[in-house]
Design goal:
- Helix content is 41%, strand content 18%.
- The protein has one domain (2-220): Rossmann fold (3-Layer(aba) Sandwich), CATH 3.40.50.300.
- The longest helix is centred in the N-terminal third of the chain and has 25 residues, at 2-26.
- The protein is globular, with a radius of gyration of 17 Å.
- Helix 1 packs parallel to helix 4 (95-101).
- A seven-stranded parallel β-sheet has the order 3-2-4-1-5-6-7, with helices on both faces.
- It has 221 residues and is of the alpha/beta class.
- The structure holds magnesium ion and zinc ion.
- Magnesium ion is lined by residues 42-43, 71, 116.
- Magnesium ion binds next to helix 2.
């Protein structure tokens, strides 16, 4: 009985996610869903991305958190449009929350919408939001066993960003083990190593984004 209720919730969610996706497409907006555990650097990644890319592309952000507007306040300082969703206890965003936040954001001139999911390695991966791409962010401080313990997020993601590589000299973390584990779950997964602190590897992340934006604009015509 419990299983069928969960299935129905996910089916209803997928329908709204599809509506969101069509809406984003009609606005010409590429949408990415950034998922990770708490404290891995999602907001830092988004801040850095806006600061480094805002000359070329217009980015808007939806921030998901259980409580507070801390992250939205940080993003607002970059000058980008930002909406904070407080889930009031729920440990993930769902398509309906995204749908209801869209009247607070003007997507007409936006190229890229970044959704920062609630910090949680588990259920954000179960709920489609209407995104074009899922990004999993992992920090080397979380340990190299995460792909083995939390396979779903690696399975549904298109790109894995391994963050905080500037800390490698101080931490016992085998990046090859992370990569091998993640690729065993999802052989199509792209993997990049980055440091939001030093900026190392971010150029490859920006190239990835620009390529996706280019392809997206081509399919629109
Ligand atoms: Mg955050
Ligand atoms: Zn949840």
């Amino acid at each position: 009985m419990k299983v069928s209720i969960v299935e129905n919730i996910l089916k209803a969610n997928d329908r709204i996610a599809e509506q969101n996706r069509n809406f984003f497409k009609s606005k010409g907006v590429l949408t990415i869903n950034v998922m990770s555990g708490p404290g891995t650097g999602k907001t830092s990644l988004i801040e850095k991305t806006i600061n480094d890319m805002s000359d070329n592309i217009n980015i808007a952000v939806i921030e998901g958190d259980i409580q507070t507007t801390y992250d939205a306040d940080r993003i607002a300082k970059t000058g980008a449009q930002v909406v904070q969703i407080n889930t009031g206890g729920a440990c993930h965003l769902d398509a309906n929350m995204i749908s209801q936040s869209l009247n607070q954001i003007d997507l007409d001139c936006v190229d890229l919408l970044i959704i920062e999911n609630v910090g949680n390695l588990v259920c954000p991966a179960e709920f489609k939001l209407g995104e074009d791409f899922n990004i999993a962010l992992l920090s080397i401080t979380e340990g190299d066993d995460k792909p083995f313990k939390y396979p779903l997020i690696f399975n549904v993601s298109h790109l894995l960003l391994i963050n905080k590589i500037d800390l490698l000299p101080y931490i016992d973390c085998d990046i090859k083990k992370i990569k091998d584990g993640a690729l065993r779950i999802n052989s199509d997964l792209e993997v990049l190593e980055i440091s939001c602190k030093t900026g190392e590897g971010l150029d490859k992340w920006y190239d990835w984004l620009l390529k996706k934006l280019e392809n997206f604009k081509k399919t629109k015509k």
